[in-house]
Design a protein that fits this description.
By secondary structure, the chain is an all-alpha fold. It is built from twelve helices and two strands. The chain is elongated, with a radius of gyration of 34 Å.
Length: 348
């Protein structure tokens, strides 16, 4: 009997010792000196200030990589501190851009009321001049429709929550926002394909010439009513081509691809920077294209025919693009810089 009790006591003692060792090992906060010191500091912090989680969150928000079993860019960083900076910066940037866009629309409306549409001073001759080929018009309309779709959906995504939501309500805005986001993501790559084609097609006629400086000096006669001689593309159109199509267009394509395809494994900082640049370029491009649409439709009589049918009246070609008209009459294919056949007239 005594032997049995002795063995039982020894077994209980062994189990208790083993349990204590396991508990001590399980509660060990670190496997090296640095982690042990951090664990002691956290324990002391909890005793002194039990509800103060600041030290823990400072470490989480430090951006320093920790351990994770999930592989990928920044998967070992729980919180990236630049995210808060991005969230704070995009609101004022979007607000300023929104006001500039509205002011642009108001300025165009005032200009139309005061100036009216730009007309030719001479009567139409009925003789038509080919201005754009079918290929050029097809590419132009493809880029135009794509860009307008992206501009409209981009405006909804950027300003819809502040402007449209209070007016149309949550249900309709939810449907509209989802549709805009989907269209924006899928139409964007179409612009990536069409834009380089447009740049190649229209590059030669948009190279600046010596006579373009005279056009700039007189602002193209927009305010004076004078018909300033120009090539196939006037200086204003050339500036628009290089700013909107080349610089802004390429910027939108590059940043759009970064945002549209996160599987490129880019970091969050790259995505945040691309988002702000994309928004700034998008608003700037939308403002420029608003002016282009105005001049190509109601702002100038006969301009829309050039892209709709490919032909313009001889009087229109002579008064608005005299150097190009002279080249056409001389049988030269798209050259610029020929001296005018006659002095340009003033618009009545």
């Amino acid at each position: 009997m005594g032997t049995t009790l002795t063995r039982a006591a020894r077994s209980v003692t062994a189990v208790a010792c083993l349990t204590w060792l396991c508990a001590a090992w399980a509660q060990s906060p670190a496997v090296n000196a640095t982690e042990a010191d951090q664990a002691k500091q956290q324990a002391a912090q909890q005793l002194a200030q039990p509800l103060n989680n600041r030290p823990v969150w400072n470490e989480v928000r430090s951006g320093e990589p920790q351990y994770t079993s999930q592989r990928g860019a920044e998967t070992n960083v729980l919180i990236q501190p630049m995210g808060q900076t991005w969230r704070a910066a995009r609101v004022p940037v979007a607000t300023i851009g929104g006001f500039l866009f509205v002011l642009t629309l108001l300025a165009l409306a005032v200009f139309y009321v005061l100036r009216g549409p730009i007309k030719t001073s001479g009567a139409p001759t009925g003789r038509m001049v080919e201005r754009f080929t079918l290929v050029e018009r097809s590419v132009h309309w493809g880029v135009a429709i794509t860009f307008v779709a992206l501009a409209v959906t981009g405006l909804v995504i950027t300003f819809g929550k502040s402007v449209l939501l209070p007016i149309i309500g949550y249900t309709l805005f939810s449907w509209l926002a989802t549709l805009s986001k989907t269209l924006h993501n899928f139409v964007g790559p179409v612009l990536v394909v069409l834009l380089p084609i447009m740049i190649v097609l229209f590059l030669r006629e948009n190279l600046f010439r010596a006579h373009d400086f005279a056009w700039f000096k007189k602002a193209g006669g927009m305010f004076s009513g004078e018909h300033v001689p120009a090539g196939k593309a006037n200086a204003g159109q050339k500036l628009l081509f290089w700013l909107m199509v080349v610089v802004i267009g390429i910027t939108l394509c590059v940043t759009g691809l970064i945002l549209d395809f996160p599987n490129f494994n880019q970091t969050r900082a790259t995505m945040q920077l691309a988002n702000v640049v994309h928004m700034v370029a998008g608003i700037a491009g939308t403002i420029l294209v608003a002016g282009h649409i105005y001049l190509g439709t109601i702002g100038m009589k006969g301009a829309l025919d050039a892209m709709r049918t490919g032909y313009v009246d001889e009087t229109w070609a002579k008064e608005h693009h005299l150097y190009w008209y002279n080249e056409v009459k001389a049988g030269k294919a798209g050259g610029e810089g020929a001296p005018p056949l006659a002095a340009p007239q003033r618009a009545g």
